[in-house]
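step 4 of 6: structure.
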Amino acid sequence: MNRMRWQKVLKRVLQYWYLIAFCAFSLFPIYWTFASSLKTPDETFAMPPKWVFVPTLHNYGVVFGLTIGPEVTGVTTEEAGGGSEFPRNLLNTVVIAAGSTIMSLVLGCGAAYSLTRGQVRGGRTVLAGTLLTRLIPPVVMLVPIYVLWRSLGLLDTHIGMMFAYLSFSLPFTIWMMYSFFLDIPAELEDAAAVDGCSHLQVLWNIVLPLSSPGLAATAVFLILGAWNDFLYSSVLTQTVARTVSPLILEFITDRTILWGRLYAAGATILIPVVVFTFLVQRYMGIGLTGGALKG
Amino acid sequence: MAKRRRWTSDRLFWNLLLWPALIVIGGVFIYPLITTGYLSLTNYDLISPPHFVGLQNFVNMLSDEQVWNSLRVTLIFSAVSLGLEMLIGFGTALVLHDIGFGRNVVRTITTIPIMLTPVVIGAIWGMMANYDFGVFSYFTMLVGIGKIGWLTDPTLAMVLLIVSEVWQNTGFVILVLSAGLANLPVEMFEAAAIEGANFWQKLRYLTLPQLGPIFNVVLIFRVYELLRTFDRVLTLTNGGPGRSTTTITLYIYNIAFSGYEMGYSAAVSILLMVLTLVICGYSIWSVRGT
């Protein structure tokens, strides 16, 4: 009896130690990014690293173009010039992510709703098609979209980026919202129709509110998909519509690494993502597997 | 009754809802996809008009050492990462399933890395692994190994890449598998316990068969993402040292935007697409069977 109890306690202790270690491991690089972003150039390169220090917003000032100050490059400490593209790129990222998400939701919900209720011919083919698009790596479309955008004058434009993202976000939205709309009992809509509601009223007043968790989950994944993208934004933008991802790459050259800017810019990019993750805890399972577990 | 019949067959409305989306998909997905096929049969270089060369690109691919190298890199990276993510993920999910308190906290914490921007993550891991100033050097000196040149050794660079990938995405496996474990019928396990089954027997005969479909789904999602790894490689190692971590997407990207060989790039990207479709398609097909 005693021995079994000891074994159980030991097992619990080991399990919790493992979980604590795993969580620490998961959080450490994130903590390191934020902590390093608040260090002065000297502290950044201190070896052994400084765990306790006085935080300063110097790096953020440099990366947002607000400060001119010593900048650490890993080889030398240079005087950074004033001005930075980061603020504008950040704004571009926000605008493009929001815009493409809205477009995707509007077009996608409409299509998904018509596929659930509308008995459209070829509806099954469309659905199978949206599933198939999820198996195609985005790099396959990269060159044609670049060539096409170039001839259409869509390179380095916000609207061009929004449309480029639609190539993957729209099928995703249709697939996700289709399964969420299916969950809404048809009787509710029929009842509303009997009461005299038009199609649009039913969609707007009944179906969409009822599927708002699904809408929210889909929106989060769309926003994050645009926010985290690098491949398309590095190829399809140059200066005007540049997003933050390609800028991060520019901070790393063969000669130098702009440590301060990297940490501050990186932290700035990651903050909204971390916040979002907390907000949508409940929807993670649904969104990440895209309803695949249901079907 | 007449109203109801009109309701579902109100063709105009439904088509008005559906077709804008289809047109957009046609323009930004189907058309580019077909164009890739077309470009792969040309030697387009963005300057002169495309010139048809038939299957020459594909023939060249077979003898291109870099294609084979990047395939090998991608497959090794994907296989090892996948194996680690599934093992650690499943093990952690099992532990989570066993404990009562703290489940949600752990799940939240382990899912934070998943959503983070891969370009940024690659840069951060690169800085942490820096020989002179990286915090990893501090840790390895602490345990007496001394500083390690992660980014200058081909094998270590691959290890670093794999670790950064596993660090980021194991949380996904944990999330989905622990949800699956939570949905397993309890009575089954209680009956087995009464019959005297031990942990490993329960695992093998009850848990694994029940979780089979969910395992498959996780696998498909992970494989798809792993095969197209690009962002994190670019900022972490830029394919180096040499070409030891050049994944196939990175090679495709370089062919197109460093070498401007659009046709060849399209051809290699078709190779990647076929590879992805075959591997993921096979997994999906085997799920349908159950």
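step 5 of 6: annotate
 - Residues 2 and 255 of chain B are 62 Å apart (CA to CA).
 - Residues 1-5 of chain B have pLDDT under 50 and may be disordered.
step 6 of 6: archive
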